[in-house]
Amino acid sequence: MDDLKEKYLGLIANAADEAAIEDLRVQAVGKKGEISLKMRELGKMTPEERQVAGPALNALKDEINSALSAKKAALADAALDARLRDEWLDVTLPSRTRAQGTIHPISQVTEEITAIFADMGFSVAEGPQIESDWYNFDALNIPGHHPARAEMDTFYTHRKEGDNRPPHVLRTHTSPVQIRSMEATGAPTRIICPGRVYRSDYDQTHTPMFHQIEGLAIDRDISMANLKWVLEEFAAAFFEVDKIEVRFRASHFPFTEPSAEIDFRCSWVDGQLKLGEGDDWLEGGGSGMVHPKVLQNAGIDPAEWQGFAFGLGIDRLAMLKYGIPDLRAFFDSDLRWLRHYGFNPLVQPTLHGGLSR
Ligand code: PHE
Question: What separation in Å is there between the alpha carbon of 171 and the centre of ligand 1?
Fold first, then answer.
């Protein structure tokens, strides 16, 4: 029995893993294990022999069983320690400064503009890019014969032979979203709508698809003064300067009355554009007080509500802010261009954290 004890305690001490422990258990105290077989021999012994051998065998069995479970627990502890050592992570390492891809300047500028207007209480509205004749033109007070339709170089879709309804168009501006949004929420409302628009035109400053951002604020007593303040706040925040003066130039849009072209004060020195100072003016976009007929077309009573709308070119704002000379390059998908002008995808533009970093 002493030999058995020595043999198994030695084997258990040297077992490498839990599988080896299980093998040893079967071999020693399993049904056909060495110690179990010894216990069967008790039956053949004389009562005197049995009285000595019985308790001794039981004690041996207990001792081996507890050696087995102690070793099993020790092995599990060691395995956990090894795992904790291997799966160690240095959380004080700096994050990667540049991920593989970059954010396209259009996406970046759209995010920047959205952050600025969100801070002034504007939410983002969307509409379809394939638009009905009604939303793109008529509802905006541009009837069929109006010259504005021709000026916009519209892309038309085709109707089936014999279908005489007016064709759908690729929206020529984001203004149809004004109508859809007012229909959906009524007044008061405060939205911006960034998105793609389409006009048949192509040169250094025109592409057949480009991006606009529409703004709309309707309430009981909104005026041109509110419009001017909003645009000045926006321009200063967007170009990241203290102050930018806005000038209104009398203009005409069928959907606003009065209408004004938006100019930002600037200077050009040695081909360098500086916003906010100087004696030059930079064209920014169109704006005005929403025409009563447009409010009516969107189901809003013009006797009770009024407000302003404006439209700015996102691509143009991106070119001015980031010194990008050719609009067409935006849509070439040239990787070298994207690496040069693209933005860090891990940085979200915010007013408090900085718009462009
Ligand atoms: N929709 C006009 C355009 O594309 C811009 C605009 C928007 C003008 C809102 C006034 C008010 O030219």
Answer: 12
Residue 309 CA to ligand 1 centre (angstroms)? 8
Pocket test of ligand 1: the residue of 169, 172, 173 to mutate, having most ligand atoms within 8 Å of its CB, is 173
Asked if 174 and 194 count as a contact pair (C-beta separation under 8 A), the reply is: yes
Torsional sign, CA 146, 148, 149, 153: positive
Q: pLDDT tens, 3-38?
A: 889 999 999 999 999 899 999 999 999 989 999 888
Alpha-carbon radius of gyration of the chain: 39
Is the distance from the beta carbon of residue 173 to the nearest atom of ligand 1 less than 6 Å?
yes
3-state secondary structure of 248: strand
Residue 309 Cβ < 6 Å to ligand 1 = yes
Count H helices and E strands in the chain, helices first.
12, 10
Cis-peptide, bond into residue 188, ω within 30° of zero: yes
CA of 261 to the centre of ligand 1 (A): 9
Q: 301-350, pLDDT tens digit by residue?
A: 999 999 999 999 999 999 999 989 888 999 999 999 999 999 988 888 88
Cα(330)–Cα(158) distance, integer angstroms: 29
CA of residue 3 to ligand 1 center, whole Å: 100
Q: Are 209 and 153 in contact (CB under 8 A)?
A: no
Query: Over the stretch 226-257, which tens digit does the pLDDT of each residue have?
Result: 999 999 999 999 999 999 999 999 999 999 99
| CA distances in angstroms from 332 to 106, 196, 319, 327, 329, listed in the order given | 13, 16, 15, 10, 5
Which atom of ligand 1 is nearest the CA belonging to 311? 7
Level-2 CATH architecture, domain 105-341: 2-Layer Sandwich (3.30)
pTM score, whole prediction: 0.73
Residue spans of the domains in the chain: they are: 2-86, 105-341
